[in-house]
Amino acid sequence: MSLISRVQQPDSQGRIQHVTPERAGWEYVGFDAYLLKQGQTLRLSSDNKELCLVLVAGRASVKTRHAEFPHIGKRMSPFERTPPYSVYVPHHDEVEIVAESDLELAVCNAPGSGSLPARLIAPEDVGVERRGKGRNQRLVHNILPDNQAADSLLVVEVYTDEGATSSYPSHKHDEKDSPDETYLEETYYHRFDPEPGFAMQRVYTDDRSLDVCMAPYNRDVVMVPRGYHPVATIAGYDNYYLNVMAGPVRLWKFTWEKDHAWVNSDQYPRSK
């Protein structure tokens, strides 16, 4: 079972990733990534989806039917580790993106049904937090968390230093009728510094009916339909990933795998 989408050469629109619910075999999450040249224009229709456009790297002007967001974007690499500029686009809208520098653009999508307006998500609107301890530390940018308005989408970016783990201890959010979890499909868009790097990511269930280990490289996408999904970096390469989640209930609620939950406790890190 393939849960990885390898990066492709840019098509005529600059698209390098195209993950649809049909391709992933699920219901909610879609993800595209583009590499646009300075001066290039990209036009998209949201149709029955809501979009979150994340400027992973570069500058652009963005215009929808009823709103304009000129000259946004500041960081030229995600590894500057500053929060990005993003734009929320509601369903049944049109959007035009003009690249004002070379631009790496992520287009996150999920079902839209409400009446929210298009809006800018500026760096100062992004919640920044550090999680974990020991070799399980990461920097988190909450771009579109569940306490900010959207119909379905949850969007977050995570930085993990070389030799560390994240999305760990192993956790899952795949139960639709559980008091302890919400059902959320998820994609990981991976980047590495330096670019030749890779990470190890495992997706597995308690009964091991799903148990897949992958090595995502720069700009690959890992799809998580269910189960646990930890990431481990390797020496020499820092990892960034952009997560997109969506499901029938817009709430991030998960459970830890019992065997590894102790890593959250005072027993870790262990003294040498």
What order do the helices and strands come in, and which of them pair?
Blueprint lengths: L3 E2 L9 E5 L1 H4 L5 E7 L4 E5 L3 E9 L2 E5 L3 E5 L13 E4 L4 E6 L3 E9 L7 E3 L5 E5 L6 E7 L9 E7 L4 E2 L4 E2 L12 E9 L5 E6 L6 E4 L6 E4 L6 E3 L4 E9 L8 E2 L16
Antiparallel strand pairs: 1-20, 2-3, 3-10, 4-9, 5-8, 5-10, 6-7, 6-9, 8-11, 12-13, 13-14, 14-22, 15-21, 16-23, 17-20, 17-22, 18-19, 18-21
Description:
- 44% of the residues are buried.
- This protein has a single domain, classed as Jelly Rolls (Sandwich).
- It is 1% helix and 44% strand.
- It is built from one helix and 23 strands.
- It has a seven-stranded antiparallel β-sheet with strand order 1-20-17-22-14-13-12, with no helix packed on it. Strands 2-3-10-5-8-11 form a six-stranded antiparallel β-sheet. A four-stranded antiparallel β-sheet has the order 4-9-6-7, with no helix packed on it.
- Pfam families: KduI.
List keywords for this structure.
5-deoxy-glucuronate isomerase; mainly beta; 272 residues; Deoxy-glucuronate_isom_IolB; seven-stranded antiparallel sheet; KduI/IolB_isomerase; Jelly Rolls; 1 helix; six-stranded antiparallel sheet; globular; 23 strands; 5-deoxy-D-glucuronate isomerase activity
